[in-house]
Amino acid sequence: MPLADIRKVQVIAPNFKRRLSGVTSTIIQLLPVQSRQGQHIASLGPGLPGTLPFIRFRDLVHLWSAPAAWPVRVWHARRNIEMLPAIFMRDVLRMKIRIVFTSASQRKHSSWTRWLVSKMDAVIATSAKTSAYLEVPNTVVLHGIDTQRFSPPEEKTAAKRACGLDDTKKIVGCFGRVRHQKGTDLFVDAMIRLLPSRPDWVAIIAGRATAQHVAFENELKARVAAAGLVDRILFVGEHTNINDWYRALDLFVAPQRWEGFGLTPLEAMATAVPVVATDVGAFPELVVTGEHETGEIIARDDLDAMVSATARFMDDEPRRLAAAKRALAHAGQNFNIEGEAETLGRIYAATAS
Question: Which CATH superfamily is domain 156-334 in?
Answer without folding.
Answer: Glycogen Phosphorylase B; (3.40.50.2000)
